[in-house]
Amino acid sequence: MATYKLQINGRTYEADVEPDTPLLWVLRDNLGLVGTKFGCGIAQCGACTVHVNGNAMRSCVYPVSAVGNSKITTIEGLSADGDHPVQLAWDEVDVAQCGYCQAGQIMTASALLNRNPKPSAEEIDNAMHGNICRCGTYHRIREAVALAATKTK
Amino acid sequence: MSTLPKPSRRDFMKLAATAGGGLMLGFSWTSTSASAMKVVKDSSLAGGSIEFNSFLSLSPDGIVTIFSPNPELGQNIKTSFPMIVAEELDADWTKVKVVQAPLDTKKFDRQVTGGSGAVPHSWERLRKAGATARQMLMEAAAKKWKVSTSTLITENGMVVHQATGRKLSYGELATEAAKVPVPTDVKLKDVKDFKLIGKVVRNVDNKEMITGKPLYGMDFYKEGMLFAMIQRPEAFGTKIKSVDAAAAKAMPGIVDVVTFKNNVAVVGKSTWQVNKARKVLKIQYEKDGDLESSSDHDRIFKTLLAKPEATVRRKEGDVDAAFKKAAKVVKSEYQCPFLSHSPMEPMNFFAHVRPDGVELAGPTQTPEMARGMVAKMLNIDPEKITLELTRLGGGFGRRLSADYVLEAAELSSIIKAPVKVIWTREDDMTGGTYRPAVRYRFEAALDTQGNMIGYKLRGAGINAGNPTREDNFPSGAVDNLLIESIEHKSTITTGPWRAPITNFLAFAEQAFLDEVAEAAKKDPVQFRLALLDKAKKSPAGPVRYDIDRMRGVIELAAEKSGWGKKKGVAQGFSVYFSHRSYVAQVAEVKLKNNKPVVDKIYAAADCGIVINLSGAYQQVRGGVVDGLGHAMYSNMTFKDGVPEQKNFNSYRLIRMKEVPEIDVHFVNNGIDPTGLGEPALPPTGGAVANAIFKATGKRLRNQPFMEQAELKNA
Ligand code: FES
Ligand code: FES
Question: Could you tell me the pLDDT band of residue B68, with boundaries at 50, 70 and 90?
């Protein structure tokens, strides 16, 4: 066990865990930040996506010992009140079915818009291809990312 | 068996959170996740809330609380059910608060999600619940104003006296209305007066879902709860011979390792710790049944289809005579693999078995059955078991089985502690209850005019029960018909998978009908319509589908897709009636670099009255995506009883770039609503295979399409 100081959603958290613990499980089990989901554990589905210094990262394969001083953002910290343009678009388009994949989808989409505020349809498809939605909400995800791009200043 | 110290806090972690420079101590589960996961108590409702019936409460501040009794797994029931109540109540939707009800057999019946059956079951009950409360509110207002209720109307959460324009809000009337004797005979609205039903209403859980609130079983946490993972046999057909848990027990955070039935449970203080410890378990298994491989199944199918006898499911006319005099006979076989359900949220359940009662919480499609089975296993009165329903991260039929609920309860009873059993994706994918593998043999006899005068179907399944649906179309439309089934019992466990049986049967049947139409030199749509005509004019035995409604979706899909009128694109047709709703689809395929690519799919659905246009639209589109994805890509194979696909790197699910445009249309006929969770899935595979045939001349008869030589070598 070792103690890690983690910069998450603009706060400092401390967790006493084994170094190989994936960030996902530190968030979920130790910090009570359960918005980040477990889907596969092998970087295949995107349910666990968080931002590390603004970039989308699969937290299920990201050991806590590698985090260092990086700034982590989870779905809970994406906005103060669920009013990030991507979240608003997700509501407006009514994307979710079961909703389980959607935190990961939103984190992938918002990271895309961070680096490319006006993505083409093809760029949206490419960026979102790594996130599985078992319910098949892909059309609405596409639509919501495009809508969010129009809301992003 | 071991006793455990009851951890009062999660002592394995030290935690501090700083906000705005200050140090926040005592991070507490109850202040974050746990509170949101509590069973709803009346006290958590709006202040002074008054219960009108099982479905709704009203509070003096005008907030209408509507309870949603059925498990929500993405079929949108938590939004659509309350819409029905609110419609008849004439409530102001902005003041409606929806609460997931726990399992309560006294208040609700059929708290089940499955078979697309919830809407037809509850439609009238929900309408009456709303209408009854509305009537009571009107009577309270009539008494207050000393007027007759016939002079009153309701709108948007208000009772209005039309003559004088006086208004009282439901909130103001709630207390008095609750004293009114409950009317037994209430008038329901005319369908044409619906204001809310049929509109686009956003999911009531949107805000929670997009901000990452704890909604799911995976997110459930209780003070003192332990975490567990269970090592189950790697191969179907084996059982535990010996367990050496010494190394696992010595791992950090591990509280105990217990063996029960064929399970070795590693119990500890965090998910990651138990996951690591289970990897050092040394378990030996021994053979306990057949260790089947997929190649065995291919052989088994051949044997089953060759057997002279099988169970007769339906018989009309004289099939032998019809085939003897046939001008042409068409014969084909179709096969599908096992499939994993793979909901995005893996299986999990929380259980706390105490001497005085049991607390259960988690995702299940059948809470009442699960509770009953736990009661039986533990030999305890079901009344002493509470079951809290969490939102389900998908189900697809997997959570109709209660195996994972029983495991959690049994484990908790052994360790005498609250515990949540978590399945990894690998556990979920290799742990069984798959969509059964099936092979069908179809034979059709045509006369000289190309009419189908004989039809034979034998379905051979592996743990599939009856893999036919003997009364489905084209039964009733063919004079001489024989439907049979035959089964092989396997050690591989199977269970219902979204649109059970029809998820593949529809593909096989609709693709075969295309082959028959081709042989008869007829247009596939005209061929199907002619069969329906025949069923209408001179039915061959009972007709258990509505011929006009089926015709309706066929015509709508043909119209919207411009059937037969398009150049440069190959179209394939399919229509199916399942789970009480009718759906027809047209798939369009184009050749890109000589490979067939699905470009667009049109779906026409008749589910009667559409309750929530947003939810319904997505159910159909999601069903088509599901049908397409599994027809194209997914495959679960076995080697010596061991599932060969263990995670999403080898078990392929459809992804963003593989999804074509999907155009959805509804028949508007005012008929009482039926479900939509399943019916849009079955027709897709057939429409796609038929379009691929048009485009390439290659007939796909087995799934997944991408693994067939026809596409691989295309
Ligand atoms: S859980 Fe991390 S990618 Fe699937
Ligand atoms: S909404 Fe269910 S997995 Fe995406």
Answer: confident
- Using CB atoms, pick whichever of A92, A98, A103 lies closest to residue B392: A98
The answer to whether B7 contacts chain A (CB < 8 Å) is no
Separation of CA B339 and ligand 2 centre (Å): 18
C-alpha angle B72-B77-B78 in degrees, rounded to nearest 5: 75
Q: Minimal CA–CA distance to B102: which of B129, B77, B67, B52?
A: B67
- Ligand 2, residue A95: give the atom nearest the CA: 1
SS3 of residue B126 by DSSP: helix
**Taking CB atoms and an 8 Å cutoff, what residues of chain B touch A35?**
211-214
Proximal ligand: closest to the CA of A56: 1
For the cut 60, the answer to whether the pLDDT of residue B16 exceeds it is no
Over the stretch A30-80, which tens digit does the pLDDT of each residue have?
999 999 999 999 999 999 999 999 999 999 999 999 999 999 999 999 999
Residue for token pair 């680096």: A115
| Domains present along chain B, CATH in parentheses | 9-210 (3.30.365.10), 217-288+347-422 (3.30.365.10), 310-338+434-712 (3.30.365.10)
Report the complex ipTM. Answer: 0.98
Q: Do B210 and A32 touch (CB under 8 A)?
A: no
Q: In DSSP terms, which residues pair with B65 in a beta bridge?
A: B57, B97
CB of B477 closer than 8 Å to CB of B656: no
The stretch B122-133 carries a mean pLDDT of 90
Give contacts of B421 with chain A, Cβ < 8 Å.
Answer: none
Rounded to the nearest angstrom, the minimum Cα separation between A23 and chain B is 10
Kindly report whether the peptide bond that precedes residue A117 is cis, defined as omega within 30 degrees of 0.
Answer: no
* Tokens found for residue A75: 């779905």
Closest C-alpha to A141, from A69, A90, A72, A104? A90
